[in-house]
Specification:
Helix content is 10%, strand content 69%. The protein is mainly beta. An eight-stranded antiparallel β-barrel has the order 1-2-3-5-6-7-8-9. The two termini are 35 Å apart.
């Protein structure tokens, strides 16, 4: 609960500061990349995200973000009540909405940035076992993230961006790393 209150305070504080600033601008961005969770054997999967941002000044921005962390899977065994082993496959898909605060260091056409975020993520899990059928469930929870990245201004309105982010304790169980590249359009 305290995290939600703090996030709300930061968002409202930045929004009020941003509306008063003369250099306020907006942007939209889209990125695609690879997600990786060390907890899954077949772990590298395709992920993507869409961002809408408010640049309060050249150093601070606030973002709203939709993220899909892909669909990692794992193979293993399950044991029934009688001790028999069955081949099994686990699939987990995580996606959700969140907000980030972004700190930027501008260097001419290059920008280095770091971000911290908080996201309401939903993870859908499905387990299929040969001879036993399948089970599924979902978990919804708030997940923190941290990331670093760089951008290069190809034109005054268009940047190429590269980022590395970590989403912590997804579904109370595992961390997901997300390396992505994309475009940011400033308006």
């Amino acid at each position: 609960m305290l995290k939600k209150v703090l996030l709300t305070a930061v968002v409202l504080g930045l929004a009020s500061t941003a509306t008063q600033a003369e250099s306020v601008s907006g942007y939209v961005a889209g990125s695609v990349g690879q997600t990786d969770s060390k907890d899954f054997n077949t772990n590298k999967k395709f992920g993507h995200k869409v961002i809408v941002g408010l640049q309060a000044n050249q150093y601070v921005a606030l973002e709203a973000q939709y993220t899909d962390l892909g669909k990692p899977n794992d193979k293993g065994y399950v044991v029934d009540n009688f001790g028999s082993l069955y081949d099994a496959k686990l699939t987990a898909q995580t996606r959700g909405l969140g907000a980030n605060i972004v700190g930027t260091v501008p260097l001419d056409n290059f920008k280095l940035f770091a971000k911290a975020g908080y996201h309401k993520m939903e993870t859908k899990v499905k387990v299929k076992a040969a001879g036993l059928g399948s089970l599924s469930g979902k978990d919804r929870e708030w997940v923190p993230s941290m990331g670093i990245g760089a951008g290069y201004a190809m034109t005054p309105e268009l940047d190429v961006i590269a980022e590395y982010e970590r989403y912590k304790d997804v579904a109370d169980d595992y961390n997901v790393d997300f390396a992505s590249v994309g475009l940011r359009y400033k308006f």
